Amino acid sequence: MKSWLHPFRRICLIWLLPALCAPAFAMRQCPAEFGPKDPSVNALGWLVVALGLALGGWLLYFVVQRSRGTGWLKRTAFIFAGIVGMVLISVCGLALAAGLFFLKC
Description:
Elements: H1 6-26, H2 39-66, H3 72-102
């Protein structure tokens, strides 16, 4: 008996493999003519990462504060949505920093 999840796993794997291969091409060594990267570029990248983490944390704090006084089921849903939003904002900040600052020559 086949599982209903089997075709879904195959589709996910097909979409996931190119996403995992792309960073390998982006992390190859920069050509020598570019020279060393200025340390302020990395500092700005870490600032973007910190800003993403701070905004994500603020979003979760805001959602928890605003959900007080609601029912437990509604509050749980709001907090779960806040956690998902926090993770998305943090990952977007990391991806933005990697794409614009860390992996640039």
